[in-house]
Amino acid sequence: MDTGSLTVHNLKPGALLFHNRSMLVRTDVGHGVVVTLYDRVKEMGAICHFAFPDMNNDETPTGLYAKPAIYYLVRLMKRAGSDLANMEATISGGASLSSVYRTHQNLSLTNVKVAEDLLSKLMINIKERDVGGSDGRRVQFNTGNGELNVEDNDGLGFQDWFPGFENVVIEDFPAKGIN
After folding, report:
1. Tens digits of residue pLDDT in 80-99
2. What is the Cα–Cα distance from 157 to 136, expressed in whole angstroms?
3. CATH number of domain containing 53
């Protein structure tokens, strides 16, 4: 993927990004999942990187969890004039990093399933999936044209997967829909 003159942003787990012009977003994902949304008509995109499928009822909703991350991403797109019918999604990640998560072998599969279920519930077409396996991935997404590049990234160590999560608090969650 040619970065050209694009602004490059490195996305951490728990973060999300929406932009209505071209920007290259990069992230490394292991057991978590990266979801991208792209509006084919408005030519704008958004990306989130969540680490966990569910949160406890007493936890603050953040981008670390699938439901608040994906719903807030959709909400940002809709507020910018996007229509659900014009959105397409990609899902990347969900690797079983057994050397890192010996006791959480189902976490990666659950993360992928939750993402698929939420997008299906919203009737957003999943254009591409690059999930599973035992290696993490390096994901690059262009918010302006929807171009996605996913590469296996088996050279990362434990410290690369846990750099210190960036919590993105979503204050108006749970929402009554995504308007």
Report:
1. 999 999 999 999 999 886 65
2. 10
3. 3.30.1330.200
